[in-house]
Structure formats: C-alpha cells, structure tokens
Amino acid sequence: MRIVSRRVVPLAVAAATVAVLLQGGASDAQTVRSQPTLTQLVAQAKKLTNEVDSLGQQYDGLRIQLTHAKSEVRIAELAAVRAQRAMEGSQKAVAQLAAMGYMNGGMDLTLQMLTSGNPEHILGQASTVEQLNAEAGMRLSTLQKEQIAAARAQVTAKEQIATAAQLQSEINSKVKTIHAKLALLNSSAMTQAMAIFEKTGSYPDVVLPEATTVGTTALRAALSQRGKPYVWGAAGPDSYDCSGLVVWAFAQEGISLPHYTGSLWNSGMHVSQADLEPGDLVFFGADIGHVGFYVGNGLMLDAPDTGAVVRVEPIWWSSYVGAVRIA
Predict the structure, then answer these.
(1) Average pLDDT over the chain, rounded to whole?
(2) Is the separation of the CB atoms in 263 and 243 below 8 Å?
(3) Which of 26-30, 164-168, 310-314 has the lowest mean pLDDT?
(4) 236 burial type by CB count under 10 A (0-12 exposed, 13-18 middle, 19+ buried)
(5) 318: how many CB neighbours lie within 10 A of its CB?
(6) DSSP for residue 123
C-alpha cells in the first residue's frame, strides 16, 4: 500500500512570506519589530496544541469516570429505595405485633387466672403472648438493622451524586479552557503561520506487510481516512482527534476501545521500540496525551492537531513514551 504524506519545510524558507502576512505592509520600523516571527508563532501554536491534546485526554478520562459515577448513582439510589421499603415493612410488622400483644395480654396473667372459670384457656393465651413478644423482639432487632442500612444507603447515594456533580463541573471547566485555546489557535495570524509551516513535500512510499493482523487491519482502515480534518473530541467518520482515529479504526473490526489515550495505553501488550510492527499504537508525551499508528520506516499515521489532517508523518521520537499492540 503506497502512502504519500507531507514534510515540514525549513523555517527560513518561509520567513519572508510570513513577514508580509503578519506585517500587513506596515512601514513603521517599530511596528515591524513588534510583530511575532514565524518561529515564535509556530512555537506558540505547538505549545497550544500540546495543551489542547493534554486537556482533551483529561476530558476523555473524566468522561469515562463520569459514566461510571452515574452508574454508581443509579445503583445507590435503587439500594436506598429497597432499604427504605424493607424498613417500612418491618415498622408495620412490629406495630401489628405490638397491637396483638396488647389485645391478648392487656390484663395481668395471675389476675386473669383467678377470675376466670377456664384457667387452661388463660394459659393458652399466655403462651400466645410470649410467642408474640419473642417475635416482636426479633422484628424489632431486624427493624433497627434495616434503619441503619437505609440511612447508610441514603448517605452513599448522596455521596455518589456529589461525585458525579464534581466530575461534571471539572468536565465543563476543561471544555471551556479547551475552547479558549482553540480560539487562539484558529486566529488568523496563527492559521497563516501554520499554513506556511505545513508546506508539503512527500515521504518515502511504504508497503504494508501481506500478513493480516488485528493491528494491520485497523491501520488499513485508518489509512483510508487520510485527509480528513483533526477536530478535538471527534471519532469519525468525518473528522478525528488522535484517540478518536484509533477508536474508529478498531471499531471497523468490531473491537471496542475507550476514547482516551490513558485507557488505550492499558488496552494491549506493551512492545519495545525494537519490536515495533505496523499497526502498533505509538504514544507520546509525559502525560501520554497523543497516540498514532506505527506504519514502518520511522513513520506513523495520526490525527496530529488543530488545523491539520489525518496523515503520515515522522514519529515524534523526542516525546515518544512507548507502544502497545492490540491483539
């Protein structure tokens, strides 16, 4: 399979062009000096994209936690309802037993025997009262336990609800911060600078091995998406972020993976750099904030960052942290 992508041109080649774009024809020397250079703009853009990647992966992790927390809330709320109903049932049973005991044993037993013409009947009643008292005691003990269980269940439910609310608040904060950084990245000056910085060339052709594995099959699917834009949080089929491309590609094989680089890092077998094979997932950044597909010959396929498209490019060895093979 032939793969054609792009390489970065030297910054010096584009310096004059970006100067015209940024200066807007201004003749004042002070104005010229105050304009950021291409190198400065690109450095700022790369810093912002790295921050968006990191924040995006934190968002994905929080979203997984929130899904789990919401499930725990439902479980806790159901448990609280069951405990409340059990407690109410025991309360009713204890009240009924207490009433029966009063009706059958309201008069002192000795006085009843002395005033009754049928002492055998009175003794039979006495036995019933003792049985009722014993049963009431057991019911009361059960009720006390159920009251404690109901109280604990309600506390647990409230704690789970509070956890879910906190996670949602954190997610909202991440989204707000990400959108603010994306707005900077999408500003006209940075868009122009990055367009120059991303001028194209071509990389050597790559032929994938004939052997079909889970990884190579997913890689072939991902290669079919080249040229589609990077969009934070997207998982296809029209746009992708880095982990979204991986999730989509493996989904074509019926394999469900989490949309979160932190979880993808633990979703397969770790392999050394020397043992990399096409289709392995390669990870980058101290916080494991970026992922791509290894395609061979020091190249990877990925959805790089804002303003870029799904493409083949050199592996980011300077920030490489390891690789995972999905089997």
Answers:
(1) 73
(2) no
(3) 26-30
(4) buried
(5) 6
(6) H
